[in-house]
Amino acid sequence: MLQLPNGKQVDETMLEAAMEDASLEHKYFLHTQTGEVVFLSEYDDSDESKKLAEEIDESSQYVPIERIPTHVAYQWMEDFVENTVAPRDEQAAKKLSIALRGKGAFRRFKDVLHRVGDVWVQEWYHWRDIQLKEAMRVWFESVLEEIVDEKSLH
After folding, report:
1. Would you say residue 145 lies in a domain?
2. Average pLDDT rounded to a whole number, residues 14-28
3. Residue 146's closest CA among 44, 4, 1, 2?
4. Do residue 52 and residue 77 come from a single domain?
5. Same domain, yes or no, for 45 and 95?
6. Which of 43, 49, 75, 139 has the fewest CB atoms within 10 Å, i.e. the most exposed one?
7. Helices 118-153 and 12-20, axial angle in degrees (round to 10)
8. Coil vs helix vs strand at 71
9. pTM of the prediction?
């Protein structure tokens, strides 16, 4: 449970979605007073969206949410294959390792994962969820440090 210094809870479901969203046309921000995660899309040019973007630009209470970098997500897949699959199923590990080579590795990994068995699909999503929660925690702690540092300057 991620909690701001003022006791407000962070919307972890939206934070998770923000960190996983690979679309560069989307931006997410954490409101450091309410815990709300707000979403902006370049595809939305409504007055409401423009007003929100303006509010974010003019306020120090919004922190941009960092997405999981591609190289980190790729490393998660490699680590899963090496540390979880390989010790128990050499054939599945080999197929998944091959899927991770070259362009399109993310899509191929998921396709092959579904072909090597439901047990690996379930284990992957459980394992990935643990990695994601840890990444969220680390990111949030860095945001908390910024909030505390900013308050001590005022």
Report:
1. no
2. 94
3. 4
4. no
5. no
6. 43
7. 110
8. helix
9. 0.86
